[in-house]
Amino acid sequence: MMESLILKMARIHLPDVIAIRRHLHQYPELSFEEKETAAFVAAQLDDIGVKYQKDVAGTGIVALIEGLDPASSVIALRADMDALPIEETNDVPYKSQKPGIMHACGHDVHTAALLGAVRILHATRERWTGTVKCLFQPGEEKVPGGASLMIKAGALESPRPEGIIGQHVYPTLEAGKVGFRAGMYMASSDEIYLTVTGKGGHGAMPHTCIDTILVAAHVITALQQVVSRNANPFLPSVLTLGKINSTGGATNIIPNEVKIEGTFRTMDETWRQEAHQKIRQIASQTAAAMGATCDVHIAHGYPVLVNDDELTARAKDLAIQLLGPDRVVELPMRMTSEDFAFYTHEIPGCFYRLGTRNEDRGITSAVHTPTFDIDETALETGMALLAWLAIGDRLA
C-alpha cells in the first residue's frame, strides 16, 4: 500500500531531515532576512532534482513536483522559514549560533519537514497524479506577513492550486500525533496605537493642566466596553492594552503626552472592522470629553484563519488512514494568529498541528520561549503526513 511506502520512506529519510532541521536551527534568520536559509533550501532542491523559482517576495521559494497528468489537479504545501529575536538558552549541540536569534516557533521544523516531503513526493511522482506546489515562505512573524507578499508576487498562480495545506508545531501535543479543526481556527490580529495629548505641567497645579495620565486611564477603562458590551457574546474577541508610557515625567510632573499600545483579535472579519470603528470612536470621544485628544492608529495585521470544511475533513480522513485514529485529535480554537490566514482568503486552506512534545525527555516548553525544542521523531510524522495529504486521494 502507498501509505506503508510513504511511512517507510519517512523513516529512511529521518536522519537526513533531522540534520537539515539542526542546520536550520543553528543558523536562524529574522523575518525577511532569510538569505542563507533560502540558499540552503535551494541547494537541497537542486540535490533532489526539483525545479523551483527563487527570490519570490524577496527570499521565498516556490517549487513544483509534477506527477502523472500534471494539469489534472494542483495542491499547495507551505512552510515558513523565519526565526524570532530570542536568545536561546537550550544546551544542545544544535543551539543557535546567532546571538539573539532563535527558531523558537518551529519554522526550522516546518521547512525541514517540507523538504522531507519533497523527497518523498519526487521519488514517488510516477505513482500519483497532478502537481504539488511547495511554498517556502519568508516573514511569517512580521507584519505584513510573508504570505501576503507571496500572494502579491504570484505564488498562487501558474498553476493556481485548488487548495493549500500548512503544518505547525504544537508543543502541547505528544510527538507522533497531529490535530485538525474545521472552520474558524485562529483569530485576526491587529495592533492598536493610541496617543493621548493634553497639557502638561506641575503635578501640584493640576487645574492648570489637562492631565493625560487621568485621560489615558479613562480611555483604557472605556475601551473595555468594545468587547464586553458591543461584541456578540458568542463571538470570540479580545482587546488587550499591554503597554502605556508617558514622555519624560516624574512624580510631580503631568506629561503632555501618553502612548498606549495593544492588540485586538477576533474570529469574524465583519465585526473586526466594526470594532476598529468603535475603538476609534470611544478613544477619541472619551479624551475629548476631558479636554484632550486621542489619536488612534490601527495597524492591520493577519486576518481570521478559517479552515475549509471540505479540505480539512478530507485531510483529517487521510491522516487517520496514514497514522491511525489514536494519533489524530480535534483542536480547540485559538486567539493567536498566523499569516497562513491570507492564503485561506484566496483558496481553500487547511492549517493543522504537528505534536512535538515529549514529557519524559523534558521537551515541554511553549513556542516563543528561549527553551523551546522538539522531539525530533516528530519530523518523521511531519514529512510523511505532508506528502500523504498532497497525494493520498490522487493515487494513479
What are the key terms here?
four-stranded antiparallel β-sheet, alpha/beta, 396 residues, 2 domains, Aminopeptidase, Alpha-Beta Plaits, single chain, 34% helix, 16 strands, elongated
Secondary-structure map with pairings?
Blueprint: H1 2-26, H2 35-48, E1 51-56, E2 60-66, E3 74-80, H3 107-123, E4 131-137, H4 146-152, E5 163-174, E6 178-180, E7 183-186, E8 189-197, E9 201-202, H5 212-223, H6 225-230, E10 237-246, E11 253-254, E12 257-266, H7 269-289, E13 293-302, E14 305-307, H8 309-323, E15 328-330, H9 341-344, E16 349-357, H10 378-391
Parallel strand pairs: 3-4, 3-5, 5-16, 6-15
Antiparallel strand pairs: 1-2, 2-4, 6-16, 7-14, 8-12, 8-13, 9-11, 10-12
Helix pairs in contact: 1-3, 1-10, 2-3, 3-10, 5-7, 8-10
Could you characterize the architecture of this molecule?
With 396 residues, the chain is an alpha/beta fold. The chain folds into two domains: 2-186 and 304-391, Aminopeptidase (3-Layer(aba) Sandwich), CATH 3.40.630.10; 189-302, Alpha-Beta Plaits. It is 34% helix and 26% strand. The protein has ten helices and 16 strands. The chain has helices spanning 2-26, 35-48, 107-123, 146-152, 212-223, 225-230, 269-289, 309-323, 341-344, 378-391, and strands at residues 51-56, 60-66, 74-80, 131-137, 163-174, 178-180, 183-186, 189-197, 201-202, 237-246, 253-254, 257-266, 293-302, 305-307, 328-330, 349-357. An eight-stranded mixed β-sheet has the order 1-2-4-3-5-16-6-15, sandwiched between helices. A four-stranded antiparallel β-sheet has the order 10-12-8-13. Strand 3, helix 3 and strand 4 (131-137) form a beta-alpha-beta unit. The longest helix has 25 residues, at 2-26. The radius of gyration is 24 Å and the shape is elongated. 48% of the residues are buried. The model has no long low-confidence stretch (mean pLDDT 97).
